[in-house]
Amino acid sequence: ARPVTAYVPLFPEMLTDPGRETKKNLYLDLIVLTQGFSDSMSVLGLDLWAKFFETMKPHMTHGKDGFIWDIHGREYIHVSHILGSMGGRSVVTKMWTTFDANMRRTLESVDLDEYVPSSVPPRSKYLMLRMAKRLFQTMPSMVKGMWNYEKSMDEYLELTE
């Protein structure tokens, strides 16, 4: 990985040696993307944020070999691992159609083929299966809510009080 900008430099652990490694890594700063600020979070703040994220999206593995890397107060999406896991460019480009125009233009200018790994780390495999598992876990609640909306709403309000 080489920084596209020096505005928020990458940490040494994330950099690859130019010309020495065959695999390039592409990271997307999740904090800037979702929260809109470029300052690093405190260690405690990032730990809490990461725990929240893991609870909400357990199919997104964390760490250097995962899809999300929490490091030095920053959180990054490891786009290369997603490219390798989900089968390529089309899924990733659909993922960022929801991003703002500047982000989309930047990402569309990147040749994603350069960042597809030859092999994906074990923790980053089977994303689609993990997502399907999560969907099937939530399906009963969704059907219950569609079947009897008022009762589900009452149970929800009771739970949140």
Can you describe this structure?
This protein is mainly alpha-helical and about 160 residues long. It has one domain. About 45% of the residues lie in helices and about 5% in strands. Strands 1-3-2 form a 3-stranded antiparallel beta sheet. It starts with about 25 loop residues before the first strand and ends with a helix. The model has no long low-confidence stretch (mean pLDDT about 80).
List strands and helices in order, with pairings.
Layout: E1 27-29, H1 30-35, H2 43-56, E2 68-71, E3 74-78, H3 79-86, H4 89-95, H5 101-108, H6 127-147, H7 149-160
Antiparallel strand pairs: 1-3, 2-3
Helix pairs in contact: 6-7
List keywords for this structure.
single chain, 161 residues, mainly alpha, 3-stranded antiparallel β-sheet, 7 helices
Query: What's the number of helices?
Result: 7
Helix content: 40-55%
Strands in their spatial order, largest beta sheet:
1-3-2
Number of domains: 1
Query: How many DSSP E strands?
Result: 3
Morphology call: globular
- Which range does the strand content fall in? 5-15%
- Rg for CA atoms: 18 Å
Can I get a quick summary?
This protein is mostly helical and 161 residues long.
